[in-house]
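lol ok so funny story. i was supposed to be doing the assay writeup but got distracted and ended up predicting the structure for this chain instead. priorities right. anyway since i did it might as well share w the group, maybe its usefull for someone
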Amino acid sequence: MTDVLVGLDVGGTKTAVIVETVTGRELVDTVVPSEDWDAEPIEHGVAWIERCIASVVPEGHEVVAVGIGAQGLDSDEISREFAAAVRYPAVAVNDAALLPAAAGLDEGLGLIAGTGSIGVGRDADGGYVITGGWGWVIGDEAGAAGIVREAAKAALWAHDSSKPDDGLLGALCAAFGVDGAERLARAVNDEPTMENWGTRAPAVFAAADAGSALAASVIEAAGANLVSLVDQLVRRGAVGSTVVAAGSVIVGQPRLYDSLVRGVAATHPQLDVVLLTDPPVVGALALARNLYETTTTKES
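and the output, tada:
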């Protein structure tokens, strides 16, 4: 049997998994759907993780450490309880907490703007500091679903104010495959899911690129929300000198990243902002390796 390490980055729509031997040879680097994922009840989440691991680890290999970064692990208590329930030696954190490690940093502030949006850091005692991440219905303003929600509200408000469509309303109608404000409202409201809302986010950015001031203002507001998450992390004692941003929206849409950079430079000039170029799952693998090496050292 060959000893292996497993890193998992469990997001709202997809899960990235890396399997590597303890000597550093990569065996698996794959992405699977996050279908039916939920961190709680913990028994459900742990069973999901163990099924995922079993499906990707090749036969003849023994898992000796697992690093998990997952949506829904929103406190130290939940994360510790989750890790303790996994059948393998494991460490578990919120998925945003993977970002500094994936960027090669010992400490830093992590921001995710993907399906949803959240900020995560650690205080001087190593405890979690989490801001945002309240879900696409009432929060996650810089996530794909939240941006579409706010864009729809803005477009419908402009329509009710007898303002001419500057391109945003038409872009959203086309994205949802409907005609007119009334049908847009129904399409958004009748299926308030991440999948229905979030997949239409590119239409908002395309409208802004085409000259829609209303779409541009929605994106700027999303960027300002990310800056407010940084504000809250700093005020609550999160340590580090670098903000590491990741997630499908901020990585794929320069407008949002540029808004974040400008806002942090204006409010927290002592902080650097970097866009994560390596996948966050690299941070999960680093957690697994650190756990393995720490355990091996103690045993020897």
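The chain has a mean pLDDT of 93. The domain at 144-275 is CATH 3.30.420.40 (Nucleotidyltransferase; domain 5).
back to the writeup now i swear
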